[in-house]
Structures are given as C-alpha cells and as structure tokens.
Structure prediction request, 464 residues.
Amino acid sequence: MNPLRDIPAIDALLGWPELAEAAAPLPHRRAVAVVRREVAAVREEVRAGGALPDRGGWVARLAGALAVAARPNLRRVVNGTGVVLHTNLGRAPLDRESLARVREVAAGYSTLEYDVAAGRRGSRREAVAELLVEVTGAEAAYVVNNNAAAVLLMLDALAHDREVVVSRGELVEIGGAFRIPEVMAKGGATLVEAGATNRTRLADYQAATTEATAAWLKVHQSNFRQVGFTGQVAVAELAAAAHARGLLCLEDLGSGCLVPPAELGLAPEPTVAEAVGAGVDLVTFSGDKLLGGPQAGIVVGRRALVESLAADPLARAVRCDKMTLAALEVLLRRYLEADGWRRVPTLRMLTTPVSTLAGRARRLAAAIQRVAPALAVSCRRVEARVGGGAQAEVALPSVAVALRHPGRSARELEAWLRGGEVPIIGRIDGGELLLDCRCLLPGDGKVICDRLAPLVAGGGDQGS
Ligand SMILES: *Cc1c(COP(=O)(O)O)cnc(C)c1O
Prediction:
C-alpha cells in the first residue's frame, strides 16, 4: 500500500471546516500556495519513512502554516536580550513624537524638497542640516541612508583614484559585508596600510604617504578592543599633521555620540563635536546607534567637502527618505534642549539605574508567577550590552527575570517565547531563560505574561 495515495487533495484540505478560520485572512491563491508547500513537505517526510498525519495532524500543521503566512514578516518583538542597540532587532527604538512626525510626513505630502516661502523647489537637506550644524559645531552636514553609505560616498567624492592611509589597527569589519578595505575598494580609493596591528605612530602615516595620497582616515574600532601594548595616534595630532602636508583627515566615528559618554556611564570616546573640534575635516556616524534615531548616515565637517559629497553622483543613490528625515529632525531638536537627551529612548535605556531595573524585574517576576504558577521565577543580576558595535568593552549592570519550567528545558522555553504572536527574545544562561529588563518597553510585560500564562506544569499546554 502506498501511503502517498492517502494524502488529501489541496482543494479538499482547504475545504475542511476546521481550517476555514485559519485560511480566512489569506487570499485564496496564497492559501493554496501555503497548503501546497506543506503537502509537498509531508510527501517528502513520508517518502523518508515518516508517518502520514491523521486528520488532527493535518489540521494542526496547516493551521500553523496558514497563521504564519497571514501575519506580517516584519513585526515587533520584545527585546529581552539586554542588548540595547541590537542590530538584528532594529537598533534604536523611536519615541512617540518622532513616530507622529513620521506619520504626518509620510501619510500625505510634505515640504521635502519644497521651499514654502519662495513657492518653488527647495532642498531635502534643509530639514536637518542646520540642526546638525548646531549640535555638532561643524560648518556643514549631509545625511544619507546609513553610515556605510556615508563612508562610501566620502571616499568616492574625495579620494577616488587616490590613496587613503589607514592604521592597520583600524581595518575593521563591522559585520556582514562592511569591511573597511572592501568599502575603500568600492569607493575607488586605494588603501594604504600604516603601522602594525597593535601600534601605529604618526611616523607610520608619514611613511605611508605618497604623491597620490588624498587623506588619512581614522576608523573607530567599534566592535573590538585591543589591550596590552597598543597605541593609536590622537585625532587632533593626526589632523594637524595631515593638514600640514595638505592632506585631508577623515574619521568614521561609527556610533557617533553627541552626549559625553561619561554622562551615559559609558567608556570614554570622543563625541562628534570633539572630533570636529579636533580638526577632522569630515566625520561620519550612524543615526541609529548611540544617537538613538532612525537608520541614517550622517556626515559633518567642512562646508566645501560636504558640498563635494552632495554633488557626487553616488549621493542620489544613497540618499535617505522623508520618514528618516522627519524622525531625525525630532531627535536633533531634542538634543538642543537642556538635558533633552534624557528623552531619547536608547539613551534612557542605557542610563536607567540598576535599582529601577531591579524594581521592574521584581514586578515582572511577580506578575509572571501569578499567571504561570508552574514556572520557577526569580530575579538575577546580569550584564547588559550597548550593542550595535558600540562600546564593546562596557558591561551595563542589569537585572533579568530568570525562568525555569519543570517539564521543559531552557531551550524549549526560549523557543516557546519566540513562537508567539509577538516574539519574545531572551537568552539562555545556566539552564535558565533570562529576560533582561533593561530593554523592555511599556507593554512588554503584558506580552510576556500573556505568552507564559498557558504554560502548565506537565508540559501539556493549552494552545501552541
Ligand atoms: C556601525 C559602523 C558602520 C556602519 O554603520 P551603519 O549605519 O550600520 O551603516 C561603519 N563604520 C563603523 C566604524 C561602525 O561602527
């Protein structure tokens, strides 16, 4: 007997009343495609020796697949990882006012490239350039899609077919495809390495410089740290020496902080204003790292150079959109208010005192214990991270709610939390599932409790 013959037809399956509700949100064609895919998978499993599902098995499997197909692919999650700028989870969350402005600008028409006073075409640079100049002290500013694009544009506009000297200690890979040597190549610049991996002196930059050199580039070490016998040239010294030779001094600051890191409890690193003040000609940084805004790449520095970037053909290809500009404008205005940074969600999360987090963890633990008495719930001191390739060495003291289930492993618990309507992303440590409270946002506690409530002691939980 061939069990494959007993696989129901696609239309028959979709006609089952038990699947009507799961199929309803999807257009018929989509539902057919989902069922066809599942049937094909079952056929493979049966061929490989697996059992054919019974009717209940089919219903559970297809209802699950239809539900997954019906929900948005890009949706919110609860960040219980303790990594504040989690690149995989979208980095910096925006505040309500920024979102309201994005909505206003995106839902209708806007002044994006229109000069209302003159009644004619304007420039999309106007929205934030002046604010950036004010918060950084630079002469001029330009915004593109992200910092990788900013670096690429800078090299293309200022160093194409020329040489750029970079310390061997700063040939960073940020993640994925962004490696400084490769970005250089794409920008048409020839990379000339200076110094050694652990130490680079001014004399090394001098020795690596030729007639063809356009610039000395400094790159923030971002996501790694060197310890021991190390040294890099201070940026003020580098800028002065570059200028003395008629060269440009450029800096990819990576995260780019506007607030002195000490105020945020972070390790010392130059703020954007300090880099500009040190004489760097152009500084690039991200919009959605320590700045706490939308994804963007920001370039600030000398006016003539910024104009070269704006005039480069690549500028159009890497420009950022109106929603980004709307959110960025709100953010930059905030930085201009006294202590306004305290209202930037990312910076607020970074600076929440551990005592506040302990209270939050206690309340969350109690709420979880109420709805899911089968779980063993406790609070644990943990270390949160800045993330986003920023401040790699800094451990932020934090508090997590730690969960154990009598009938499930930490791994199963982790998968259960991830599998809900709003995925909850935690981490496993010492056999416990940890939900770090540092990055939890208002409303997350309820999501967590709702997801954990069906968990009963034996593991035979209600629903999936
Ligand atoms: C993060 C980072 C980048 C890339 O920035 P994106 O905004 O993610 O494109 C480039 N350079 C450095 C040093 C970084 O830390």
Q: What stands out?
A: The mean pLDDT is 94.
